[in-house]
Amino acid sequence: MKKILLIGTTLLLLTACQTAYYSAMEKVGVHKRDILVDRVEATKESQEESQKQFQSSLEHLSALINFDGGELQSVYEQLNDDYIASESAAKDVSNRINKVEDVATALFDEWETELEQYQSATLKRESQKKLSATQRQFSKLLRSMRKSETKMAPVLAALKDNTLYLKHNLNAQAISAIKGEFSNLKRDIQSLIKDMNSSILDSNKFIEQMNQG
What we know:
This protein has six helices and no strands. The protein has helices at residues 2-27, 32-65, 72-115, 121-150, 152-168, 172-212. α2 (32-65) runs antiparallel to α3, α2 packs antiparallel against α6 (172-212) and α5 (152-168) runs antiparallel to α6. The longest helix is centred in the middle third of the chain and has 44 residues, at 72-115. The mean pLDDT is 89.
C-alpha cells in the first residue's frame, strides 16, 4: 500500500512539474505545440542513434562468430560495451517517447478545453476538425514509436545473454553456442531497425503536418 501511495505521489509531482514547465515556456512564447514538434524531432534523432548502435552490435557479433583466434577477453569487453551502449540508447528512446506522449496529452487537453471558449460555431467546428485530425495523426505516430520500442527489450535480453555467456566461457565452445543464437538475434535486430525506420518516417510526416498548420 505504501508503495502504491509513493508511486501515486511521485506521478503527481511529475505532473505538477510538467505543468509548471509548460506554463513557464508559454510565458516566453513557446507553446505546447512547439514543444511537441521539438520532442518528436528529438525522439527521431534518438531512434536514429539507437539504430546505429544496434547495427554496430550486430556487426561485432558477426565478427565474433567468425572468430579465428586471438584474445577472447577483448572480444568479451567489446560485446559488453555494445550491450551497455545499446541499453543506454534504448532507455533514451523510451524516455523521449514518454515525453512526446506527455506533451501531446497536455496539448490535446488544453485544445479540448479551449473549444468551449469559442463564440463562433463555425470557428469552433473548424477547430474541432483540426483537433481530431491532429489526434489521429499523433495516434498513428505514437503506435509506430511504441511498436519499435517493444522490439528493443528482446534484442537487449539476447545481447545480455550472449555477453554473460561469453564472460563465463571464454573458449571456442562459447563461440559455437553464441553462433547458434546469432540468426535469431540478427533477424530481431533487422526487424527492430525496419520498425524504427517506419517510425522515423512517420515522425517526419507528423512534423511536416504540424509545421503546415
